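Students often ask why we bother encoding 3D structure as a string. The short answer is that it lets us treat folding as translation between two languages. Here is a chain of 310 residues written in the first language.
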Amino acid sequence: MRSLLTYPALVWKFSNAWIVAYSETECFRSSALFPARFLLFLRHMEIAAIQTHGLTRRFGELTAVDDVTFSVAKGQFFGFLGPNGAGKSTTIKMLTGLLEPSAGTVEILGKPFSASALDVKRQIGVVPEGMALFGRLTATEYLHFVGRMYGLDRATTNQRTEELLEFMQLANETKKLVTDFSHGMQKKLALAAAVIHGPKVLFLDEPFEGVDAIAAGMLKAMLQGMIHRGATIFLTTHVLEIVERLCSHVAIIHQGRLVANGSLEELRAGVASTLPGAEGGQRLTMEEIFLSIVGAGDQQESAQELSWLA
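And here it is in the second language, the structure alphabet:
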């Protein structure tokens, strides 16, 4: 509560009435300015879209994700980065209920996943690492199934299926089985299935892999539109240019542990301050930030060349 009330002036429209607060002191002096239901509204605004605390996953002796704690605010386009094997996909599987944490907690939209799994799953969309499509269905049949599973009525499901197939450039593939789709076509179908119910939180694991440049541009525009309408997107990808273009906040995981978390500008400033030769006006790319944080730059310098390619 206090973080929202410390701004010099707050102007909110609530229940068709303007409520103006000039300072924290004035807010508490006049109960008329902040009725109980308005305080409840402010508390609701503080609820994170995604919240983890001490999230851990072990596979025997291997700790794939180790005590990861972070928060993603509603409406953020959040990039979750890391080298191969760092724990990105394992983290997404725990955030979406596909994998049980060994320790720690996950909350989605303020609800503990372990206690409200079914309710939470109705409000999220997921493009998982392996896509998990039903190969013996057509694209239309698959989207009809997914839409009905999410509780959409038949008319809404049919309408959204038609729009999605047209948008994803799959409208001419209605008779082809999903198993016969190219990898890029399957990726577009998986994304269509993830958004057919209008999720409040969307989890994407390498969504642009195998997608052609034209379709990738369309998908980026769609995702940015979702953000503008208030959705939250959690993205993992190795294409750092996409992160730099789309994401407002980034977290980096390395060897199972969270090593960086903040806005792009915060990460830029933090990394620039550690570089001895960095100029004040230097604007680091996401690749430079990433390599500096995970320490890959030192590995590249010391890497041995292959004898037959030297």
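Translate back mentally: The chain has 13 helices and twelve strands. Keep this in mind for the problem set.
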